[in-house]
Structures are given as structure tokens and as C-alpha cells.
Structures
1.
Amino acid sequence: MPPRRSGFRPPGGRRRGIALALTRVTVPREEACARCFRPAEDCLCTRAVRLENRIFVLVLQHPREQRKLIGSASLAQCALARSRVRAGLSWPNLSAALGEPAKPAEWGALFLKPDPRPSGRAIDAYSRRGERQGDLPPLTGFVVLDGTWKQAKTLWWRNPWLLKLRRLTLNPRAPSLRPQARAAGLSTIEAIALTLRELGEDPALAEALMDQYVRLVLEPAQRYLGKGTRHAPDGGEHAG
Ligand SMILES: [Zn+2]
């Protein structure tokens, strides 16, 4: 992940607290686009540039995360040709969550907890029995949980079929562009970009996705810094 991008200044010092508060702002229902849930003036549907990814991205989104101003899952849906965002709490299996037949063995799931003994790689893959794999297996797609840490944990436990997928953990080398509750925390779209790149997609695609994140989500959100904000009732810190 490149550390800096022109035109965007990651919040620091006093601004960090305000920016963290921003992560809890929700877009009022009446002002949200029906598809991307962004305010009309910042709607992603027509602004996002379509990227032809090969590896499918399935985002399982906690329902309370849907209208978060700084949420990035809708960018995945608008920008990635092979992606889907499903809001809900539980699905009976991978195919039901995806909406089409899928083989769990060919899919990965981004796991929340980093390995206490990291390998030094940006991403690690584990077999279903929990053994770390030297080389990343070719995957058809991967699942990302979108919500606060607490919400993501709820999604994890409510969908035991996720254990049938190959577990992936991230060890990001560059910090998130957005304030995170945990040092190694990444926004959903940052986690997606890093995973796509590490699973073998064109690095330029991951780069283009990150540029859109800055231009279409983070930069517009800066306008709201210091403005009146509406806080989500749960107000937890964000997991991904
Ligand atoms: Zn929209």
C-alpha cells in the first residue's frame, strides 16, 4: 500500500480524534442512495471506475454498517466487476451467501485475528485444520466481514460454514489511511486491495482501487470533519 497520496492528508494529532468520531457517522436514510447508501452528492454508482478483477470478492456486511459515511464496502461493489455485498447476519452456507453455487475449498475467508507468530509475509493462508501453508493456494474468491470488531465477530460465529473456507490473515506493512482502533487494522477496501494483490491480481488493479478509496470516500468525508455528525447507536470501533 503506498503510504501517501496527493490531495489527501491522513488525519494526525488533534484531527485523529475527530476523524475517529467520523467513522461512527451514518448517512440519514432519506439522504442515502438506494444502491450505494452514500449521500447523493457523493454517490459512488456513477463515479466509481469499473475494474475487471478475476478473484471474486464477497463482502458480508453487518446490517448496521450499511449507511456508515466512511464505509468502503459499497466501493467494492461499485468498482469491482466480480464482487457482491450482502447485508445480513447469517446464511446457511457459502452458496446461499453468494447467491450462486460455490465450492468452499476454492474460497478463502479473511480471519480477524492475526497470527501471534507472523510469517513476515503480507498475507498468510491456513488449511481448514489450521496449518499455515507456504504458498498461497489459487482461490476462486474470498469472503470479507464488514463491520465493527464486535459486529464482525458476531458474523463470524453466526456463520460456522466460514470454517470450511481457507483462512487468510493479513499482516499489513503500511498503516491504514484511516484511523483504526487497532494498529494492524485496515478498512474493508484496504483489506480487499491487499488480499487481491497478494492472491495474484494485477498490482495496478489494487492500486486503482486504493486511489478510488481516497478520491471517492476519504476525501469527501473530510468535508464532514467538524460538521454536525450523527452517531450510529452502536458506536463501536471498526474491524475492517
Ligand atoms: Zn449510489
2.
Amino acid sequence: MRLLILLPLLSHLLTQCFALSDYFWFISDIHFDPTYGSASESCREDADLMKLGEFGSVDCDAPWRLAESAIHGMHLNGGGAQFIVWAGDSVPHTREDTLSEEKVLTGIQKLTDQLRLEFPRTPVYPLLGNHDYHPRNQLPGKTNNIYESLATMWQDWLNEGGRNPEVLETFRKGGYYTKIMVELDEKIRALVLNTNLYYLANEATDGIDDPGEQFAWMEEVLQGATQEDEKVHVFVHIPPGTDFRSQQNSRFNRLIVKYADVILGIYAGHHHFDSFRIYYDEQNAEPVAGMFISPSVSPLKGYLDDSIPHNPAIRKYIFDRYKFTLQDYEQFYLLLDLANSQNNTAWQILYSFSKTYGVKNVDPANLVIVKDGFKEFANEDFHKYYERKYVNLRRGYVPCDCDCKEQEICAIGNLNRTQYDACVVEADCSGLNGAGTLNAASLGAVLVAAVFIFH
Ligand SMILES: [Zn+2]
Ligand SMILES: [Zn+2]
């Protein structure tokens, strides 16, 4: 009898021991609003404050119940994560005069405490977002009270009992750090960057070529990784692209391409929506690296993309246990309406990249296959991509006409502004606008039309 009880446990342990893959969580853009439901400072002007749900509203940033639920959702869907990446933007979108350094730090402290409570033994890699500063976006390339305070708040994660003093040093200096995550046949390194230093809205670093000397340091780290045969995961809050100043964007992207051989993946948040990007080699011929952009926990609509609402999201990245190469990711979400109406706070899988798009893994070559498939007229995968981009709100169809589709595809394959603009100009929508629009009703009909929008 006792053996019967033990069998499932033994089977679970054996599966764990012989599993070829492992995973980590990526949680970003929580934007926790401590005033939700009272002053509701983060809510949009048109929000109906009498109808705010307990777990959040698409008109506001996250209440505590949602932040807590997201962290608990990671626990329930995989408490055995190898590590967690907490990719920043913990502070709400509110008027600047309602915030202060103290309020910024208090909000981050509350989330830090909750992560420690739920994951007391899991390594956490925290990042700075453009909202994790006062005034917002103005993160400097030099030491200041916020970097100092966060270095102290996070020192057990960053310094691991005194094993990584240089991590604290670079974090205090510029909000960035690197450390070895695990030593297998080769060492696996985390490169955690403060890309807010390159943000167009950051006046504190405007006119400085290499704020915080992060570029020089980044190159040193990547060069060292090449010499030492290490492999590197790159974590950023703001992804390179149109949010970066153009020169710094080019410099960042050149570094990624130059050292692509050692880079396992680039992981970002900030956009609040779900997408991916592909880096090509200098000849723009071969894909060399993939960047993955995770959607936000905060369901607030309308700040980074015109008023398209979405559900709260967290992401699980699955990697090869022995090589640490990225295999797939699973996007989890909370159906906000159900949480509010029925207290159902189950975080469910929305989709897995490889299963949805029918590819073996998420290496750069497979990302290209998926992206190129999108180009087909009325491609069903593109329809799935666009729905998932907005985390399946189930509040009606979000249209994406030919111009919109072109912009999406050009953004995936072009991280440089000039190349992106050229791509959009080159793609030809003439005569196809509207007809290229996908929706569930017309999908079957347009699928039979073997017309290609792109060349
Ligand atoms: Zn954000
Ligand atoms: Zn951000």
C-alpha cells in the first residue's frame, strides 16, 4: 500500500532526474500600483473607477492581488525553475508628482519580499526598467541613491553571500552586471544590461556616447566569454530597436552580431506585448541570434500601443539542461475577466512557440522559417502571432491590415531603423489593403488565395 502511494512520487523524481530540459521564468512590467482601488493613480482618465475588478482592469496598472497572483502563478506552474529573471518596470504609470524615490523603492521592496517568500531558494536576476527610477526614464550612467539602495536590497541575489563583489560594484556604478549562472562543460553566463541608458526618453544620458561605460564593459565581457568558451544569456528591459537612440542602437546591435557565437539568446520586456526579433550577420544573409520580447503583467492599455487591451502574462523559457541552449518558451496568462468574475486565478498556458508554429526549437534559423511563413497572404500562423501578441483577451478580433502586417514582419527582421524603413517601403501593399486583413470569418476564404504580399 505504502509502495502504491510512493510510486507517483518516485516516477516524478525519475522524470526530473532524466529530463533533458529545464526552465526559467521571465516576469516583466508588473507596474504595481499601491493606490489601486483607492486613489487609483495609474488608471486612465476614462476608467470607470466603480467597476475595477479585484485582480485588475485593462484601464489601470496591476493591483497587489494581481502582482501577488503572478508570482504565485510562477510557483504553481513550476516551482522548480532553475532561476527567475525579473525584468523591471515595477512602478506604476502615474503622474510624476505622485511619485518619489521613496515610493519607487517601497514598491520594488514589496515585490522583492514576495519573490523571496515564494522562491526562497531560487536565484533571481533583477533588472532595472525605465520606470524603476525617479523621475522615470532618467536613469543615469553613474552611481545614485536608487542604484545604491537596490544593490543593498538585492545583495543576496546579486552577491550570493560575498561570492560576486564585482556584481555589486557595476550595479552601483551603472545598473548592470554579469555573473556565472552555472558551470557545466562550459560556463553559462548572465549578462544583465541597463538598456534604459540608451532610451530616447532618457535626458540624463543624452549626448553621452557610452553612458556608464556599459558598452566598453559589455564588449569586454563578451570578448572574455569568447576566450573562455563561455555561453551567454543577455537580459535587457528595453529591447534594441526604435526605442534606442539610433547610434547606440547600431552599436548595441553590432556587438550582438560580433559575439553571436557565444550568445544563447536575448530576452527583453518593456513593450508590454509579445514578439520576437532576428539578428542577421553583417552581410545580412544568415540569422545569428534571436531576441524574445515578453508581454507584461500589467494589463494597462494604451501607453505603448494604441488602446489594445491584453491579459496579464508571465513566460517560461525552456532550455537544454546540459547545454543551456534555448529550446522553446511557453506563454502563460491570466484571463482577467474570469479572475474578476469567478475568482479563478489559474495562470494557464496560452501557447508554446514550437507547437504553435510547428518548429523543432526557437533557434535563429527556425525563427526565420516562422517569419518568412508570415509573409504569405493570409498566413494562418501570422493570424495566431497577432492574436498572441495581445495575449488573447477574447474581447473581439484585433485587426491587422496589410500595412500593419508589413510593419510587424519588418520589425521582426530589422533591428536597425534605416533597414526597417527600407523594408517597409519595399513591401508592397498596393491593391491589397483590406483584402490582406485577417479575421476568423474571412480566414478560410482567403487561405485559398495563393497570393503573396511580400517579395
Ligand atoms: Zn513597462
Ligand atoms: Zn519599460
3.
Amino acid sequence: MSKQKLRIGMVGYGFMGRTHSNAFLTAPRFFDLPRQPELTAICARNEDRARAFAENWGYGSVETDWRALVARDDIDLIDIAAPNNTHKEIAIAAAEAGKMVMCEKPLGRNAAESQKMVEAVEKAGVANMVWYNYRRIPAVSLAKALIDDGKLGRIFHYRAKFLQDWTIAADLPQGGEGLWRLDKSVAGSGVTGDLLAHCIDTAMWLNGGIDTVTAMTETFVKEREHTLTGKVEPVGIDDACAFLARFSNGSLATFESTRYARGHKAQYTLEINGEHASIFWDLHDLHRLEYFDHRDQGTTRGWRSIHVTDGDHPYMDKWWVPGLSIGYDESFTHQAADFILGLDGDAAAPTFADALRTDRVTDAVLKSGDSGQWETAL
Ligand SMILES: NC(=O)c1ccc[n+]([C@@H]2O[C@H](COP(=O)([O-])OP(=O)(O)OC[C@H]3O[C@@H](n4cnc5c(N)ncnc54)[C@H](O)[C@@H]3O)[C@@H](O)[C@H]2O)c1
């Protein structure tokens, strides 16, 4: 008997449109899913480019207005892979039309937007998820399993960094295609909502809620030409942000992100120090988890580098043979698979409600950057 289809309407054919399309094509080939994802329609405003994308990835049809996509009765799931200023309106309309909704991060440009999105999906009772994909890199999933198993004991410290270097040039414009991340009205914020949101999502998943934060933010280049207006306009985003946080479990954290760390393209690292053990992970070496256990035999005690590619490691029994690694794109494949598996059982996280908690923390961080005070993130 053929499986029930999950008919997907994708909004956006950029970076994330490609990762999500790849994930929905790949997931059913490696995971035994109760429903068969179908790339039913791609939506973007440029019809020629959308048609070329549809042909390349195998989408059955093209829409140039997301409202037309949401109105179609042959779509089950709306997947939002467009810039942050589109998320709220599309997600709420999709939920009101009874569609399942998957949305890229950050959920909203701020927690107030995200709150409305949570209300809409909960009122409609539709399945929902936010693409915080780093949770599903096997080494990060293994970190979660080790922590839940009590291997680290009481946790004292959490340390995360996400460093890039692509906005250092003062003559780089802001706004428009490829540069919307520099336009506050589109992005909502700079590195805090874009990069630290990932770090915060992973941190709260691994180590529980964050209660209070104190931050410093900076905009190094104060004015940039706007691609859409041609005028030099003030830059409203945070180029860099560093903050301290207190978790509900009593542990202390430092988080740092910038797009001005010359030489770093996407260096996301996290370290957790517990009573018995510590772990360290680096996106540049994503299949490895560094682990130190104080309970190991004394003379050979030391940091071990776990190559997270064995059959009993998270997700790895679905892939090749032990010792062979997978990469960045598979974190999206895992997320697509978990979402579909969760449709007939426990809903997979992070849901919109989970992502709202992250946006509350980023709001508090930005508020603290302005006020210079400790702010509450609850
Ligand atoms: N999970 C991650 O690691 C990750 C990584 C990158 C981006 N993101 C998020 O994904 C989203 C998209 O980012 P991206 O890097 O793919 O951007 P992008 O600029 O590469 O692509 C954006 C796409 O959205 C389309 N678009 C813009 N406005 C639209 C509208 N009104 N209707 C239909 N389509 C529209 C554009 O044409 C383009 O195809 C953002 O929310 C971003 O924060 C997440």
C-alpha cells in the first residue's frame, strides 16, 4: 500500500530553500517514515528563477505569491524559508488555513511576533516546528544524551561562540537580496537573532532555561548604503554581541557572536563543564565530540575525541558504515525525518513554543545591550 503523502509548499528558494528541499528528498530514502514527503510547490517572487528551482529540485508547480500557496487545498505543510520579516504573516495565514507549518529561525523578529505565531498554531491545532537544525548533528545529539544520562553531573559552566567575518568591509551595502541580514527592519536584529539564537536554542535544550542576561552589543559600521533606496542609511543591527547568562539550574554562561572575527566563516563552538565531566563541540569538526571524564583511570585520564560515526551514535545507524562521517546538510534531513515521525506520535521539538523561549532570551539580550543592566529572560 502506498504511503499517505505529505504535500509541501516551500516559501523561498535561497540557502534554506535548498537545504530544506534536499532534506525532504533525502529523509524518506534513509528513514522509514509514515508519510511520503512530496515537493508540491515552490513559492518565490521571481517566476523565472522559481521555475528553474522547481525543475532542479523536482517541485510540481510554482507560485509567486505566498497567499496563493497558502490558499491551495493540495498543500498539507507550509515551510517558510524566506527572510525573517515574512515569517509571522505567512505562518499565521498558514495555520489559519489549517496547514502544518515549519518555519526557519528566528521564529519572529522579536518575541511579540513569535507569541502571535504560537497562538495561531496552537489555536489551529496544527503541527509546527522551527528549523534549529544544530540539535540534530549527531555529536550534539550525543552531548544531549550524555547530559541526560547524568554523565556530567552538576553543570557549572556553558560557553558558546558563533563567529563570522563577512561584514567587515565598510562599503558593503545593506538590504535587498543577499544582504537583508544587515537591514534591521527585515532581520529584526543582527548577530543576536541570526547566530546567537542558534547558540541559545542548543544551550536551553542541553542545559535548561535561561533566567537572566547582561549583554554588550556594538555596531561597528554605523551607516551603509541601502541597496533598495540607494541612500546611505543608519545601520540598526548589532554587528557583535557578547553576553553573560544565568541558567535556572544555577550554572553560568558566556555567549559571544560577531561578524567581525577576521578568518572565521562559521565557527560555532560550545563547551560545557560539569562536576564529573566536560564536553566540547566545534561546527568545523562537526562529527567529533570532545569529552573529558574525571572518573577515568588516573594515568590515562585526558580529553578523548569521540568520532561520532558508530552505529549506536544518534542517527548514525541510518547512514553508511561505522567510521564514515556525514555533514551539515544531514542535520536538516534528520529534522525533516523527526518532524514527519512526530506527526503520528509525540511532536518533535523545537516547536514554535520552544522557539518563542529563545526569542525571549534574544529580546532580553538586546534590551540589556541598550540598558547596560541585567535583564530577565523569562
Ligand atoms: N537554520 C539555519 O541554520 C539557517 C541558516 C541560514 C538562514 N536561516 C534562516 O532562513 C531564512 C532564510 O534565509 P536564507 O539564508 O535562506 O535567505 P536567502 O536570502 O538565501 O533566501 C531567501 C529566499 O526568500 C525569498 N523571499 C523573500 N521574500 C519573499 C516573499 N515575500 N515571498 C516569497 N519568497 C520570498 C527570496 O526570493 C529567497 O529565495 C531566514 O529566516 C534565516 O534566518 C537559517
4.
Amino acid sequence: MNIYLRNIDPNDYVWIWECRNDEHTRMNSIHTDSISLEDHMSWMKSSSKNPNRKIMIGCYLEDNVGVIRFDIINEDTALISINLSPGHRGKGYSVPILKSLEDIIKQEYRKVKILQAVVKQGNIASIKAFIRANYVKVKEDATIITLEKYI
Ligand SMILES: CC(C)(COP(=O)(O)OP(=O)(O)OC[C@H]1O[C@@H](n2cnc3c(N)ncnc32)[C@H](O)[C@@H]1OP(=O)(O)O)[C@@H](O)C(=O)NCCC(=O)NCCS
């Protein structure tokens, strides 16, 4: 599948905000609140200066398909978050996007050895996508499932 990741620039910030505030996304997120454009813009600005966070856009042909992000949360672990735009879900794009990000981390962030995903219970598509990308469940409680992959 012809999926690739690209770096973002400020022209992408509003589209990323729209994806984040999509109702289905919020329902499946740990934080379900809607975010104001103002708060989002200041979060994007601070994120762009944060060396431990990287946000990229997954593309299929010329189309923006979704947003993928990682946060380095300690020396060897990166927390991965993926959010496809509503029109691009259920088409199998998530796994190639997760794999492309993994390649970038392997090449450019060599200290990172563990990829971690924290998924809300019941978010079947997300759990299946991470498992298909070879993450394994390491922890679970009533609300959250944690999956990890050693790279
Ligand atoms: C979760 C998400 C990343 C999955 O990506 P996707 O490309 O839509 O998923 P896929 O098409 O690869 O489907 C993954 C699997 O889930 C299944 N699936 C998809 N939607 C489903 C649904 N609504 N209910 C049950 N299963 C579903 C698919 O059949 C597929 O199963 P398979 O591996 O057995 O073939 C994407 O749907 C999304 O961005 N959702 C909104 C935000 C979100 O929940 N992000 C994750 C937060 S951790």
C-alpha cells in the first residue's frame, strides 16, 4: 500500500484539530473533551518545539489520511497515538502508518526500544490495528489496555 509519512507545518494545524475533535475520535479517546482551536494552536506550537514529541501526517497518494504522533516518555519508551480522519477509517491504513513510524523511530531515535500504545477498552479497531502491527497486550484494567512492541 502506497502509504508514507510527512512532516507537518502550521498549515496542517487546523486539519489536525478537526481530526482530534471528531466525535468518534473523542468517544474512543482517553480524554473525551472537545478542544478549542485556541488551546489546540498553543499545544501545536509548544509541540513543535518539544524534542520528545513528533507529529506526522500519514498520506495515501496525495491525500492526508491521518495523524500519528509519538512522545518519548522515558529513555527507551515512546508512546504512540494514531488518529485517522473520519473518511479514511476501516480501510487498513493504520498498520502501514504504524510501521512507517516504527521505521523512522528505528532510524532516527535509536535509544527508543519500546513502543507503547494506551487504548480505551472497547476500541476494537484500534486494538486490532496495534495487534496486527505486532504489539502485544501487557496490561489491562477496566478502562484501558496497554500494548507494547519491542523494536
Ligand atoms: C483506530 C484506528 C487507528 C484503526 O485504523 P483503521 O485503519 O481504521 O483500522 P483497520 O481498517 O486497519 O482495521 C483494523 C481492524 O479492526 C477492524 N475494525 C475496523 N473498524 C471496526 C469497528 N468499528 N468495529 C469492529 N472492528 C473494526 C477491522 O476489520 C480490522 O480487523 P482485522 O485486523 O481483523 O482485519 C482508526 O479507526 C481511527 O483513527 N479511529 C479513531 C481514533 C482512534 O480510535 N484512535 C486510536 C486511539 S488509541
